[in-house]
Design goal:
Elements (H helix, E strand, L loop, with lengths): L8 H13 L16 E5 L4 H15 L4 E8 L6 H14 L5 E5 L9 H20 L3 E3 L4 H14 L3 H4 L5 E2 L2 E2 L7 H10 L16 H17 L3 H30 L1 E2 L5 E4 H6 L2 H14 L7 H9 L10 E4 L2 E5 L15 E6 L18
Parallel strand pairs: 1-2, 1-4, 2-3, 4-6
Antiparallel strand pairs: 5-6, 7-8, 8-11, 9-10, 10-11
Helix pairs in contact: 1-2, 2-7, 5-8, 5-9, 9-11, 11-12
Length: 367
């Protein structure tokens, strides 16, 4: 009688990571769905997602959940349809059901190719999850991907949230393999007899992520010793906790300070803003700008808005992006009917407030 192959340690670790990630998913299954919730694997056919599909198939076989797969064909490379078809065939061979290929059109308007492809991919995954009533979508990002993400954030001079990297969970999306190395996913594919596809763009030095992967991190490992990827991933985990707390405190502060003007402006009292720690003050200003439809303001724009609190020089306006601007109230120019005309930063959008030098209309506030 043939002996079963010894379980690869990486497979056991991967199964445990997935099981931990799926905890509570059954309670979140859409109303009216079968007893077992459905999770979908975002499967490109590469080592990471194919290993995740194999481990997820084991979870389905042991009765934890039902597992399907979605393969997104971006159509950006010759033969992409064949690659997508092979990935779908591999998923079906593992017993995943349903399995579908979604072809997307990547719109590069206003963004780089990587960001455009990511936007199209997540839109397709959102649609697939909604169509199938999925309780979760599994993504195959590994510790190495996390380290690359942090390094790219450092190169851009990003803030806490960006340096926190990719969360283990956000909404429907789960990343159970963030503690697993890329070499582990390749070993898992070999254990299951799977032949993954290797994306040629991962070798293309035209992409910053590829340079970080193939040149920067290996150089740091050579110069500083092993463990760089683990250290960067650990940094992301620590900063993620810090970012969560700062965002909670900022949201509470913003809710307590925010007042709406007669024309839909957002007013924030200067004295209260000055009393906040800088980390919260900048986040409160960003929340107000986002509330009015701005893009995430840059740190330079937020510092410029902060400088209005010094009451030196110009009272503004300072542009925060997305047609949102902020200015300091000047004496004698009321924004709220019957209230004091001094002591607020005023954020406005779409030209509804043209700065401190233009008199406002007195349209009543809409409830």
């Amino acid at each position: 009688m043939a002996r079963r192959p010894r379980l690869l340690p990486a497979v056991g670790t991967a199964r445990n990571l997935l099981a931990a990630g799926l905890e509570g998913i059954a309670d979140e299954a859409p109303t009216g769905s079968p007893t077992l919730p459905l999770v979908l694997v975002a499967c490109s056919g590469g080592p990471d997602s194919l290993a995740l599909a194999a481990v997820a198939a084991h979870a389905a076989h042991t009765g934890r959940c039902r597992v399907g797969a979605v393969v997104v064909d971006h159509g950006l490379q010759p033969g992409s349809a064949d690659v997508a078809a092979r990935a779908a065939e591999a998923a079906r061979g593992l017993g995943l059901d349903p399995v579908e290929v979604r072809t997307v059109a990547v719109d590069r308007t206003g963004m780089g190719p990587e960001a455009a492809a990511r936007t199209a991919r997540y839109s397709a995954l959102d649609d697939a999850a909604a169509a199938h009533g999925a309780a979760a979508v599994l993504l195959g990002h590994t510790l190495d991907d996390q380290a690359e993400q942090v390094m790219l954030g450092l190169a851009r001079g990003s803030g806490t949230r960006s340096l926190a990297g990719m969360p283990g969970r956000r909404g429907l999306y789960l990343r159970p393999f963030l503690e697993l190395r890329r070499a582990d996913t390749e070993a898992i594919c070999a254990f299951y007899g799977l032949e993954p596809w290797h994306d040629p763009t991962n070798e293309d030095r035209a992409f910053a992520r590829s340079r970080v992967r193939r040149e920067v991190l290996p150089f740091l490992e050579d110069q500083l010793g092993p463990g760089i990827a683990q250290a960067l991933a650990r940094t992301a985990r620590i900063l993620g906790q810090d970012a969560d707390l700062l965002e909670q405190l900022s949201s509470e502060a913003y809710a307590g300070l925010r007042t709406e003007g007669d024309d839909g402006e957002i007013l924030l009292p200067e004295d209260a803003l000055r009393a906040l720690p800088a980390a919260l003050r900048q986040r409160v200003l960003a929340l107000a700008a986002l509330d009015l439809g701005a893009f995430q303001p840059s740190s330079e724009r937020l510092r410029a808005a902060e400088s209005l609190l010094d009451r030196r020089g110009s009272a503004g306006p300072v542009q925060l992006g997305g047609k949102v601007s902020v200015h300091r109230q000047v004496r004698g120019r009321a924004v709220l009917r019957g209230d004091a005309s001094y002591g607020n930063l005023v954020l406005s959008s779409n030209g509804s407030n043209n700065g401190p030098g233009v008199q406002q209309s007195r349209r009543p506030t809409q409830e």
